[in-house]
């Protein structure tokens, strides 16, 4: 009976850890590998794992003549908190390395999850506002546009904070965010301010797209988890449709008021402008990480990787191959750098990768497509380009990690038993020896 109880406690610990990872956007392959690593560290062998979008299941059956012990945990979705993810990841690594016992790891995970956010809510709102400012800089926005983008991002954060309290589905939350962003742009256009309101809308779209989670869905599809990938993809498509509906409604309101928001002229290209764009990308990525409760030590790494990705995008895009291919190459670069330098960052690669690709999200293509549709023209091509860019970003990050995987012998030895490169979780199993 005592042994059976210890098995259930080990499975419960693994499930609690898996829930945190999955809620933080980790791929199903990473979640599966982390849970199995935890059970092995707790000396529970012959465990199989099943990960879906809403349930985590662990099954332990040491032999055919012994009934299986099955534990199932329903995933409780909560706002992404990278601080919690990092602390749980560190606990898992310490457990796998034998530095803490199973009981100590269970107590640490319970404390981490129950403590709550380590950052004031008003600071998070400011972080979202700074992210909007960074996106506006990447679009060549003037100081006035940057200020409006800051206010827009803060207003969107307000809708994302209030609506979940009333159990409003995510589709309507994203629609409300898109509508608020467009209304602010309409109001700015109705004044004598010399602004390009489309950049304000685009900044709001990028902020909303950052939470859609297309990268997790693509990673699951590429690593052999079609059910989880389908569920995540459906959720992402619905949320994106909500953004499109909200922005479309705002454009309609603007058209009814005689305020046009269809014009977009990118900033001039030059050395100074390239520097501003790269700085804006670094600022937006770091601000997104800050608003997602990432610790201060990770912000510099996020900013540097995002700046590198933006620089690669500008270099490739200027060669004439198109923005989609430029985004793909930039994503490959981001994935490769994060995978190689994850030990130096002292945070899971996921914490750096996701914020770093935020400035590359196709908010401009979505806006252009909607603006064309509002004019009665064909904007489907622009929306299709936005989808292609989003998929290129997600697939490129994972491809970059595959390409550099042979350079990390420690990870390669572990990953002979995994479906793909790791973005979170331990890089070695309990009992592995360094060579």
Descriptive account of the structure:
The protein is mainly alpha-helical and 435 residues long. The chain has 2 domains: 2-117, no CATH class; 121-410, no CATH class. The protein contains 17 helices and 3 strands. It has helices spanning 2-23, 28-41, 82-96, 102-115, 121-138, 143-162, 170-189, 197-209, 214-222, 226-256, 271-291, 296-317, 323-345, 349-357, 363-374, 380-404, 409-415, and strands at 47-51, 55-60, 69-74. Helix 1 runs parallel beside helix 4. The longest helix is centred in the middle third of the chain and has 31 residues, at 226-256. Residues 264-272 have low confidence and may be disordered.
Give me a quick take on this structure.
With 435 residues, the chain is mainly alpha-helical. It has helices at 2-23, 28-41, 82-96, 102-115, 121-138, 143-162, 170-189, 197-209, 214-222, 226-256, 271-291, 296-317, 323-345, 349-357, 363-374, 380-404, 409-415, and strands at 47-51, 55-60, 69-74.
Question: Helices, strands, pairings?
Answer:
Elements: H1 2-23, H2 28-41, E1 47-51, E2 55-60, E3 69-74, H3 82-96, H4 102-115, H5 121-138, H6 143-162, H7 170-189, H8 197-209, H9 214-222, H10 226-256, H11 271-291, H12 296-317, H13 323-345, H14 349-357, H15 363-374, H16 380-404, H17 409-415
Antiparallel strand pairs: 1-2, 2-3
Helix pairs in contact: 1-2, 1-4, 3-4, 5-6, 5-8, 5-11, 6-7, 6-8, 7-8, 7-10, 8-10, 8-15, 9-10, 9-16, 10-15, 11-12, 11-14, 12-13, 12-14, 13-14, 13-16, 15-16
